[in-house]
Write a structure and sequence with these properties.
alpha+beta; 8-stranded mixed sheet; elongated
Length: 435
């Protein structure tokens, strides 16, 4: 990125998607600039013609009796046509997702900024250099300098100021009416005005750079949000997204100690078979909304939805030394919230929850084109098996011995179910019931 005065400043390497988005945004601001130039030109031309019709003597007095409306169109119409052509070229490049060549930008600046110079030459021919240089036309250079800010390029704005300053100085020093006895121009007088125009061009470029930085920051933020959404799905709260952006989402695999929670609505399929698809979706969405909100408050995230259930994590992607405590507290609140929801619903749902804590491999897994953040390992498998045991015990909330040990005195209400055979494991595992 260009620094304040156009020098390269350090920034992280950005993706092609970022560069494409930034290019598109810059081209859109260029279209705004062109529309502003066309609108300003049409407005100025219209006002001059209106005054000429309503009070022709005033116009003739200003032009020293040499105003010809056709001369106005000789300058303004080609300029408007040129800008319309540039607008169509930029629109075409925008549609093709391409940037404009740099040389075309500078050529465009030279052509555009020469329009006031041509008008100034016509004024000098009619008014003389003293009156023409002190009249309104030299001020129109500032229109081009100000609107160059929308190019978001320091050097283009500076070049605009330089072209305007150089051409104004050249017209003041070199261009005179044929056969006139005008006084000789003062170099210092006209140089000061030109220097001010050049400085204004540099300041416009500095403002453009700041705008460009804001665009880059906005696009980087949007890109980061998209990347987080791609990795974690749409299952994290805005607060989690902000934290992931601030701390940086993990991009590689790592070993983490996490609490894994599986949640499932028991006998949901049987209840869904007697209801319309819309009723099923509405009931499930309403239930999930309550449970996910509880997860957010306790620092957990939904890693993935699994039909009528979901897998939630505590301790990934963020570290959480008390992951087991958070998971159990969230599960208890889920059970209470579900009971309240059942009292107000014609379709009561029964939750099954299983929680296990241990080490997992956490990271981005998938194909080169599509990855998502997930966790794998025996901890995840056992938590899934644990939740499934709710059906055998007619329970709603089961925890592993590792969770029971981690909670200590906080789970004095836990009921030991003994060593239970678990599908996929050779030896029985100790299971505890809560809730």
């Amino acid at each position: 990125m260009l620094g304040l005065w156009g020098h390269k400043s350090e920034r992280p390497v950005v993706s092609a998607d970022f560069q494409r988005a930034l290019t598109q945004q810059i081209l859109r601001t260029e279209l705004i600039r062109i529309k502003a130039l066309i609108g300003t030109t049409v407005l100025i031309g219209t006002l001059i013609l209106i005054v000429h019709v309503l009070d022709p003597d005033a116009i003739q007095k200003l032009w020293h009796g040499r105003f010809d409306p056709s001369e106005l169109f000789i300058v303004l119409v080609p300029f408007v046509l040129f800008e319309l052509w540039v607008h169509s070229v930029i629109t075409r490049h925008l549609g093709k997702d391409q940037d404009l060549p740099v040389y075309r930008r500078y050529v465009g600046v030279l052509v555009e900024t020469s329009m006031p110079t041509l008008a100034l030459a016509m004024h000098i021919d009619s008014m003389g250099p003293v009156d023409a240089l002190g009249f309104a036309v030299p001020l129109t250079y500032f229109i081009f300098v100000i609107l160059s800010t929308l190019r978001l390029d320091f050097w283009l704005s500076t070049f605009t100021g330089f072209v305007a300053a150089a051409q104004l100085l050249a017209m003041a020093m070199l261009y005179h009416r044929a056969g006139s006895a005008d006084p000789p121009p003062d170099l210092y007088y006209h140089s000061v005005r030109s220097v001010i125009i050049l400085i204004c061009g540099m300041l416009a470029g500095a403002v453009g750079v700041q705008l460009r930085r804001q665009f880059e920051a906005s696009i980087l933020a949007a890109t980061a949000r998209d990347r987080i959404t791609n990795l974690f799905g749409q299952h994290v709260s805005p607060q989690v997204v902000e934290r992931l952006m601030a701390e940086g989402a993990a991009t590689g695999s790592e070993i983490r100690r996490v609490a894994v929670m599986f949640v499932d609505f028991r006998s949901f399929t049987a209840g869904a078979s007697t209801r319309t698809p819309q009723e099923v979706v509405d009931r499930l969405d309403g239930a999930f909304a309550v449970l996910v909100d509880i997860l957010d408050r306790h620092g957990g995230i939904v890693n993935k939805f699994l039909g009528d259930g979901f897998l939630a994590l505590f301790g990934a992607p963020f570290d959480a030394g008390n992951a087991a405590h958070r998971a159990v507290a969230a599960a208890r609140e889920m059970l209470e919230a579900n009971e309240r929801a059942n009292q107000a619903s014609s379709w009561p749902l029964r939750i099954g929850i299983g929680i296990h804590v241990g080490e997992v491999v956490a990271g981005n897994i998938g194909s080169p084109r599509r990855k998502e953040y997930t966790v794998i390992g025996d901890t995840v498998n056992f938590a899934s098996r644990l939740e499934a045991l709710n059906k055998d015990f007619n329970s709603q909330f089961l925890i592993s011995e590792a969770v029971h040990d981690a909670l200590g005195e906080e789970c004095r209400d836990a009921v030991a179910l003994g060593e239970v055979p678990v599908r996929g494991y050779e030896r029985p595992m100790t299971v505890w019931q809560l809730g």
